[in-house]
Amino acid sequence: MYRAVDSEGNTIDFYLSESRDKQAAKRFLKKALAFSYVSRPRVITEDKNPAYPVAIQELTEEKRMPKGIQIRQVRYLNNIVEQDHRFIKKRVRSMLGLKSFRTASWMISGIEAMHMMKKEQVHQRVKSAQNEVEFIHKPFGLAS
Q1: Are 44 and 15 a contacting pair, CB within 8 Å?
Q2: I want to staple 25 with a disulfide (CB 3.0 to 4.6 A). Which of 35, 51, 75, 119 is the partner?
Q3: Domain residue extents for the chain
Q4: For domain 2-140, which architecture applies?
């Protein structure tokens, strides 16, 4: 699971992939950088996954990575992201893991949607109860 969190702990985006390889890292970074409500990030802090530098290099060559972003691979600076993961870990651990990728995708999308509502991030994007319902349906492909 890949996760982008801003400096205030707000979830920018998440991406679930079956593998943590270069293609998955590149897909996630493109998706996270594409959010319109997020201005150009100053710093990207990542774990020591060897796929990140390769994906960042390719995105830079394709001119999809804005210039001037500092890239950090410092373990303790990644704590904001790890703290955001704990809500998913708490739920999945009690269920003794998830058996299939499809189940994991649906379950984590639901947990993420509810967690964003709990952190009151939904109100930044939606203004009515109907829009909240659409926000919840979107991760599951139910939105029309």
Answers
A1: no
A2: 51
A3: 2-140
A4: 2-Layer Sandwich (3.30)
What pLDDT is recorded for position 5? 79
Which residue, 80, 79, 26, 83, is CA-closest to 49? 26
Structure tokens at 120: 């009151």
| Structure tokens given for 51 | 């796929």
Q: Which two tokens stand for residue 130?
A: 């109907």
Global pTM?
Answer: 0.63
Locate 113 and state its tokens. 């949607």
Pair 11, 112: CB distance under 8 Å: yes
Please give the structure tokens belonging to residue 95: 């269920």
* The two structure tokens encoding residue 79: 């704590």
d(CA 89, CA 130): 30
